[in-house]
Amino acid sequence: MHGLILAGGEGTRLAADGVGGSKATVTVAGRPQLLRLVEMLGALGCESITCMLRDASTVAIPSFDDIAIGASGCRPVVRVVPCHTPSSLHTLVDGLAAVPRGNVFCTMVDTVMRTRDWRAVFDGATQAIADGADAVLAVTPYVDDERPLWVHRDAVGVVHTIGELPSDPPCVTGGVYAFGSRARAEAARARRQGASRMRGFLAQMVADGYRVSTVEVPRIVDVDRRHDLDIANAWLGTENE
What we know:
- The protein has one domain: Spore Coat Polysaccharide Biosynthesis Protein SpsA, Chain A (Alpha-Beta Complex).
- The strands form four sheets. A seven-stranded mixed beta sheet has the order 5-4-1-6-11-8-12, with helices on both faces.
- By secondary structure, the chain is an alpha/beta fold.
- The two termini are 31 Å apart.
- The radius of gyration is 17 Å and the shape is globular.
- The chain has seven helices and 13 strands.
- The longest helix is centred in the middle third of the chain and has 16 residues.
- A hairpin with a 5-residue loop joins strand 9 and strand 10.
């Protein structure tokens, strides 16, 4: 499994709240967020980690020199790829093109989870892809988003619709995905056909009959605004309690 971090957004909502820097460099639980994610993907066992970073030449990129040897027994190769893409799907497709062949474990740069939940999602996604899923979504019943992407699934967690209609019980995407080879090809095709957003691509995959599975965790925080950052810092501060 290869790791992919999408940090192609401008972070305008954080900036509007007076938070300086980019989402990649904002401090969460005492660590720059990009560094936290690289360390996490390395610890989970990703063979390589590709970071799609908006305007990388102007961002203070954390040092990855001390990334520990992960579960694979090897220290992952970390690569930063500058991007200036117009949408989340464009960033994903360019990122997938930069990642070596194989399955991909992908996260948005503003995603915050507890360590045990990262492990649950990674292990569950790895197993689901091995069992024939084309893609896997991390989902949560925790809803704190202006425009949540709702997931409707069956009893074994396979998605049958994704969209704006709330699900009961609540289930929304959390910015972490795994993609097999068919999903990688489908993302590129979707962009060629004019799709521009991740949510549209994911919904179309389901509608077209691709097998999309889920791994549920109790809570995922997307750091879009200052109050999200405050929540994430307070929450992770109690992780070992």
